[in-house]
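Entry for S-adenosylmethionine complex. Fields follow.
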Amino acid sequence: MNKKVSKLKTLKQKQAKSQLSDREKSVQQDLKAQLQKQIDALNFGNLKPEETYTEAEKKHVADLTEKLKKEYSEQQITEAGRPNHPTGEAGRAMLERMNDSHGPMTQWALSHLQFGEKDRVLDIGCGGGACIARLSTMVKDGTFVGIDYAKTSVEATRQFNQALIDAGKLEVIEASVSDMPFADDTFDKIVTVESYYFWPDFETDMQEVYRVLKPSGHFLLIAEVYDHVGLPQSVLDNIQAYEMRNLDLDGFIDVFEKTGFADIAIHVKPGERWIAVEGIKA
Ligand SMILES: C[S@@+](CC[C@H](N)C(=O)[O-])C[C@H]1O[C@@H](n2cnc3c(N)ncnc32)[C@H](O)[C@@H]1O
């Protein structure tokens, strides 16, 4: 319906300037008729008056209202917090929400990695720090590094994982994926959750990831969405609004191969849009 409305708006602007051709006038009439049909189909006229609702209907409406309120407030938090570069108080609130909301997907994705007891693990775009906390429970004697180019994220990760820092097991560094302050072949495992969408140049940034990974080390890219048929309009709108990169399966394979990764594996979660792409350094 949105596309039709926006086409109608364009035609109306031309109409105001008396620039409509006969063909465009007929398209305009057609679109108006189609939209009216869609509005009629919604059938608002048949709604029961509220005072006649049964208890079950009242509960249904209350639940829906609660769900919409939650979704609306999450959307507001995300918009204010700038997911591509979390900033200030609004950024902190958004990172706290993501620490919770990304939990099930992160847990599912990390379960594909076989960790060694003493692995050195890097989390790129560590955000609110929950992924590092999770990793520390999976790699008991491991050491961890988080990097993020947003100061707010670095502070949030430090605060969330103060005990790991105090134990000398975690370092959190303000840096971009494009230029990481690590020697070649440093990490056994590298993960990134919900961050690649925003990296400035995916192909060269992947070279940088590859550089700091040890030979035979594993890289796991985790994302809540990937490009495939049937993505709902609301998801496509978010992708556009936040200027997110959105690769499809071939796109991932292409870049992982170009980077030099061997044994590329793609995991998708049935019933979700989650994806975890794994590559091993040759
Ligand atoms: C949507 S948040 C996800 C945070 C966290 N990984 C999670 O799953 O909750 C994206 C994070 O990636 C970081 N990020 C984006 N581009 C980056 C870059 N070029 N280098 C380092 N971090 C980056 C952002 O600052 C932000 O903290």
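NOTE: Residues 73 and 144 are 33 Å apart (CA to CA).
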